[in-house]
Design brief:
By secondary structure, the chain is an alpha+beta fold. The protein has four domains: 6-116 and 257-324, HUPs (Rossmann fold); 121-191, Methionyl-trna Synthetase, domain 2 (Beta Complex), CATH 2.170.220.10; 372-517, Isoleucyl-tRNA Synthetase, Domain 1; 575-677, Nucleic acid-binding proteins (OB fold (Dihydrolipoamide Acetyltransferase, E2P), Beta Barrel). Helix content is 43%, strand content 17%. Strand 6 (142-145) and strand 7 (154-155) form a beta hairpin. It is globular. It binds one RNA strand of 77 nucleotides through helix 6, helix 12, helix 14, helix 15 and strand 19.
Length: 678
RNA sequence: GGCGAGGUAGCUCAGCUGGUUAGAGCGCGUGAUUCAUAAUCACGAGGUCGGCGGUUCAAGCCCGCCUCUCGCUACCA
C-alpha cells in the first residue's frame, strides 16, 4: 500500500425517503464503520463521513402524496436515520444532509467552477410543461396510459403495474400530476457533463491504474467504459434542489446525482475548517464505501466531476458490496420488505452487536447474500454467546472463584503449550489486520473469533478446574494466560463489536488500550483487580425469531392482497370508439424467436383475411413450438410497426395477471379464422 | 441478445501467478468433559469443484461451447 498520511472515508448517502434497513448496513455502514474504527485504533488520522441525500423527484412526489412539503419529508427521515445510526454505533465524525446551507453553497460553487472552465455543454430539448402550474414536469410527475399493459396510472419513468421503464413521451394521454391538465411539449435548456470527453482519462485511471479494485467494481466499470460514455444532464427543471448559480437558469436545479456526492465535501466542510486537507492533499487517501447500485456514480461520474473541477483528489479505492436479500426476497423499501434498523433497535435492545456481527459475517462481499432470521439467531447463539461470550465468562468466573478477581502472577511452571498459545495471539492479530487492510471484513471477523476459540481450547486442554485440586501454582499460570487472551480479545473485537468490547474492557478494568497493544501478554498485570462478570451476549430465543418471521409474513400477505387489487375501470367510450377496433380470431401458423431478443416472438397468423406477420412480446412465457395451431384474438387494424427490423401487422390480445404472466384468450371451441370478435 | 459478476461439502464461504490425498465456520454423527448462558474440546461422515469438450506431464484455477442465478442494457403495439 502507498503511504498516505490520512484517510477520508465516505459512505453512500442514504436517500431520505425511508429509514435505514439491514441491506444498507451490510453493504455500506457496517464495513465502513469497522474500517474507520480500525484505523482510529491504529492512531491514524481518519474521518468517517455520512449524510442524508435529500433532493430528487421521489421526495417531492412523496411530499405531494402526503400533502406536506419536501422539507417535512426529509426532516422526518433524516432524523430517524441519524438517530438509528447513532444508536447502532456507526461512528460518523459527521452526519450531515444535502439540504444544509453549506451544501447549497458548496454544490453551487462546484458547479460554477466547472461552468467557468467551460466544462459543461448546453443543449435544448423538448420536455413536458404544465401550463397551469407553470413548470416543467419531471417524468415522475406525468401519468398516463402505459403503452405496454394499458394501465392508466403509469408514471412517466416507469409503469408500476407492469414494471416497464418508460419515457414520458411514450405515455398515451399524458396528464400532469400537479394540476391534472394536459401537458404540452416545450423547449428547455440544460447543461451536460460531457463524460465522453473524460473517457480516455477514466479508461487509463481505472482499467490500467486500478486493477486492484474488487472484481465486481472493476468489471462493472469496464462494462460501462467499453459501451462508451455519453454526456449526462447535470440540471433539470424542478423546484426542489440546489438552484443553478448562473443567469438564465431560473427554475433549474442540479440533478440529484450531481449534487449528492458533493454532499461528502459539504459534510467535511461542516466538520472541520481543515476540510481541504482531506480532499485536496495528495497524501490523503479517499475511500468510498457504497453498494453495487452506486458503482457507476462513484467510479465514473463523480471522478469525472472531480477531475473537471480540477483541485480534488480521486478515490483510491471503492470497495462496493453486492446486495443483501431478506429471507430469499429482494429488500424493498416500497414493498416494506426489510428489517428496519430503528425497529430492530427497539425489538433487540442492547443487542446492537448481534446484528453488526451477523451482517459482517454474512456480508455480500463477492455476491448477493441472504439474511435469514434463523441464521441471525444461530450466529448469535452459537458463535457470539457460545464461543466468545462463553470463553470470557469462563475465564472471569474462574478468576473470581479462585482469586477473588485478582489477576494471578504467572506460576513458576510454564509449559510450551502456554507459550504457544500466547504466541498465537499475535498470529491471529496479523491475520485480522491483513484481512481488514484488503477490505475482507467477513474473513476478518471470522479470524477475530478464532482468538476466542483459541481461548476455549486452551481451557479445555489445561483443565484448571481439575488441576486446582492438585497443583495450585499451575492454575495461576493457566488463568494468567486465559486473562491475557481475554484482554487481547477485548481490543481485537472493538472494531466489529464496539459495545461489547467496551463492556468487556469495563469488566476487565482495562482502559486506554489501542491496536498496538494487541499481542501483548501483560495487558493485565499480576494483582490487577477485575470486576464481577456479566454476560456479554444474550441468547436469542425461538419466540423472538418467530415474532420477526410473523412480522415479515404479515408484510408478505399485505403485499399479496395489494397485488390482487384490480385495475380501476377506464373512462367510458362510445360504441363507435369500440367499433373502430377490428378484432378477429386467427390461427398461429408458425412461431419463431426473434434473434437477439429475450421477449419477442415472430408469429405468422392466419387471420382469415390474409396471412400476416405479428411480433409479440410473449417469448418469456411460451415456446414457439407449443403455440403453433393455437387460435388467438388478434387486433387486425392496428397500424403496422417495425420492431427489430420486422414489420408487425397487428397485435395478439393477451390477458395479464398481477404477476405479469401472460395467457392467450382462446375461443371456447374451434371457430373459423377471420370470425369477428365483438 | 450484449456486457458484467457469480455457480466449490446440507447452509454460508476460502482456495495466491495451474502442481502431491480440495479447505474453514455453522449444521449433522460419535466420544471426552463440567469452570461456563446444555455452553466447550476432540474425532468423524459428507464434495463427479454447474455440464460437456480442449490445452498441459499436471486444471477448481487456462481456452471453447452450453446451462442456472444476480445486476446493467436492448427488445414488449
Amino acid at each position: 500500500m502507498e503511504n498516505f498520511k490520512r484517510t477520508l472515508i465516505t459512505t453512500a448517502l442514504p436517500y431520505a425517503n425511508g429509514p435505514i434497513h439491514i441491506g444498507h448496513l451490510a453493504g455500506v455502514y457496517v464495513p465502513a464503520d469497522i474500517y474507520a474504527r480500525y484505523l482510529r485504533m491504529k492512531g491514524e488520522d481518519v474521518l468517517l463521513i455520512g449524510g442524508s441525500d435529500e433532493h430528487g423527484v421521489p421526495i417531492t412526489l412523496k411530499a405531494k402524496n402526503e400533502g406536506v412539503t419536501p422539507q417535512d419529508i426529509v426532516d422526518r427521515y433524516h432524523n430517524i436515520i441519524k438517530k438509528s445510526f447513532q444508536d447502532f454505533g456507526v461512528s460518523f465524525d459527521v452526519y450531515s444532509r444535502t439540504t444544509s446551507e453549506t451544501h447549497y453553497k458548496t454544490a453551487s460553487d462546484f458547479f460554477k467552477t466547472i461552468y467557468d472552465k467551460g466544462g459543461f455543454i448546453e443543449n435544448e430539448s423538448d420536455q413536458f410543461y404544465d401550463e397551469e402550474a407553470k413548470q416543467f414536469l419531471a417524468d415522475r410527475y406525468i401519468t398516463g396510459t402505459c403503452p405496454h399493459c394499458g394501465n392508466d396510472g403509469a408514471y412517466g419513468d416507469q409503469c408500476e403495474s407492469c414494471g416497464t421503464s418508460l419515457n414520458a413521451n411514450d405515455l398515451i394521454n399524458p396528464i400532469s400530476v400537479i394540476s391534472g391538465s394536459v401537458p404540452t411539449l416545450k423547449k428547455t435548456k440544460h447543461w451536460y457533463l460531457p463524460l465522453d470527453k473524460h473517457e480516455p482519462f477514466l479508461k487509463k485511471w481505472i482499467l490500467e491504474d486500478h486493477k486492484e479494485w474488487k472484481s465486481n467494481v472493476y468489471g462493472q466499470c469496464k462494462s460501462w467504459l467499453d459501451q462508451g460514455l455519453q454526456a449526462r444532464a447535470v440540471s433539470r427543471d424542478l423546484d426542489w434542489g440546489v438552484p443553478l448559480p448562473i443567469n438564465g437558469a431560473d427554475g433549474k436545479v442540479l440533478y440529484v446525482w450531481f449534487d449528492a456526492p458533493i454532499g461528502y465535501i459539504s459534510a467535511t466542510k461542516e466538520l472541520t475548517p481543515e476540510w481541504e486537507k482531506y480532499w485536496k492533499d495528495p497524501e490523503t487517501r479517499l475511500l468510498h464505501f457504497i453498494g453495487k447500485d452506486n458503482i457507476v456514480f462513484h467510479c465514473i461520474m463523480f471522478p469525472a466531476m472531480l477531475k473537471a473541477e480540477g483541485s480534488f483528489n480521486l478515490p483510491d479505492n471503492v470497495p462496493a458490496n453486492e446486495f443483501l436479500n431478506l429471507e430469499g426476497d429482494k429488500i424493498s423499501t416500497s414493498r416494506n420488505w426489510a428489517v428496519w434498523l430503528h425497529e430492530y433497535l427497539e425489538d433487540f435492545k442492547g443487542q446492537e452487536d448481534s446484528l453488526r456481527y451477523s451482517l459482517c459475517a454474512n456480508a455480500p462481499e463477492t455476491k448477493d447474500n441472504d439474511f435469514t432470521w434463523k441464521d441471525f439467531q444461530s450466529r448469535n447463539n452459537n458463535e457470539l454467546v457460545a464461543i466468545l461470550g462463553n470463553f470470557v465468562n469462563r475465564t472471569m468466573v474462574l478468576t473470581q472463584n479462585y482469586y477473588k478477581g485478582k489477576t494471578p502472577a504467572m506460576g513458576t511452571v510454564v509449559e510450551d503449550f502456554d507459550r504457544e498459545s500466547l504466541a498465537q495471539i499475535g498470529e491471529i492479530v496479523k491475520k485480522v489486520q491483513t484481512s481488514l487492510d484488503s477490505f475482507r471484513f467477513r474473513e476478518a471477523v471470522k479470524e477475530m473469533m478464532t482468538l476466542a476459540r483459541l481461548g476455549n481450547k486452551y481451557l479445555a486442554d489445561t483443565e484448571p478446574w481439575k488441576v486446582i485440586k492438585t497443583d495450585e501454582e499451575r492454575v495461576k499460570t493457566i488463568l494468567f494466560v486465559s486473562l491475557q487472551i481475554t484482554a487481547n480479545l477485548s481490543i481485537l473485537m472493538e472494531p466489529f463489536l464496539p459495545f461489547s468490547a467496551l463492556k468487556l474492557q469495563a469488566m476487565l478494568n482495562l482502559s486506554g488500550t489501542n491496536w498496538d497493544d494487541l499481542g501483548r501478554t501483560d495487558l493485565l498485570a499480576p494483582g490487577h483487580q477485575i470486576n464481577e462478570p456479566e454476560l456479554l451476549f444474550a441468547k436469542i430465543e425461538d419466540k423472538e425469531i418467530q415474532y420477526q418471521l410473523d412480522k415479515l409474513q404479515a408484510t408478505k400477505t399485505a403485499n399479496q392482497s395489494a397485488a390482487k387489487t384490480v385495475e380501476p375501470a377506464k373512462e367510458n367510450i362510445t360504441f363507435d370508439d369500440f367499433n373502430k377496433m377490428d378484432i378477429r380470431i386467427g390461427t398461429i401458423k408458425s412461431a419463431e424467436k426473434v434473434a437477439k431478443t429475450k421477449k419477442l416472438l415472430k408469429l405468422e397468423v392466419d387471420t382469415g383475411i390474409d396471412k400476416r406477420t405479428v411480433v409479440s412480446g410473449i417469448a418469456e412465457f411460451f415456446n414457439p413450438e407449443d403455440i403453433v395451431g393455437k387460435q388467438v384474438n388478434i387486433l387486425v387494424n392496428l397500424a403496422p410497426r417495425t420492431i427489430k427490423g420486422i414489420e408487425s401487422q397487428g397485435m395478439i390480445l393477451m390477458a395479464q395477471n398481477a404477476n405479469d404472466e401472460l395467457v392467450f384468450i382462446e375461443p371456447s371451441k374451434k371457430i373459423k379464422p377471420g370470425s369477428v370478435v365483438r
